[in-house]
Amino acid sequence: MEKYSLGPEIEKAIEQVLGYLNFSSGLADPAFEQNLNQLWARLCDLDEHATWRTVGDLLIEKLGGLRRGNASFSDATQAELVLTAVCDHILPGYLKFHQNVLFTKMKVCFSTRSCSRASAGPHSSRDCPSRLRLSSYSRSSRD
Question: Residue 122: which pLDDT band, with cuts at 50, 70 and 90?
Fold first, then answer.
């Protein structure tokens, strides 16, 4: 059961975000960042308590629907692993590490960079948490 009525424009943005996560080699993509930003903004308009977890849960839910209804997503392993890495490891670890300076919601820029970085591969559930070191994000953001 869908909690939010997002509209066709945001539904299209979600599909494009998930396409990026599933097929990307990890290169930065302004369209991906814009789509994720649109999704984030729409969720915040609908729910003032929306967080990165709200966005992640919605993307995981929508990915399940695309897997069943869109042949391009029949193998959505990369997107699933990226979302798991970002939502279950990277963002919680970042928040915990920086809890003394973070008093507001996670910024979209870090979320998009995390997704790009996690999309770079390799894509196995064993490799994701160990290879995605928080320190590599601070260095890659300056590249």
Answer: low
pLDDT surpasses 50 at 23? yes
pLDDT digits (tens, 9 = 90+) for 107-121: 556 677 777 777 876
CA distance 107 to 122: 26
Q: What is the dihedral of CA 26, 28, 29, 35, to 10 degrees?
A: 90
* Residue 32 scores a pLDDT above 90: yes
| Closest by Cα among 57, 28, 6, 4 to 115 | 28
Q: What gap in Å lies between CA 79 and CA 47, rounded to an integer?
A: 25
Cα dihedral 76, 126, 136, 85, rounded to 10, equals 40
For residue 8, whether the previous peptide bond is cis, meaning omega lies within 30 degrees of 0, is no
Question: Cα separation of 121 and 69, whole Å?
Answer: 26
Q: What is the spatial distance between Cα 141 and Cα 52, in angstroms, rounded to a whole number? A: 19
- Please work out, in degrees rounded to the nearest 5, the angle formed at the alpha carbon of residue 17 by the alpha carbons of 97 and 1: 90
Kindly state the DSSP code that residue 49 receives in the 8-state scheme: T
Domain spans of the chain? 8-140
User: How far apart, in Å, do the first and last CA atoms of the chain sit?
Assistant: 42
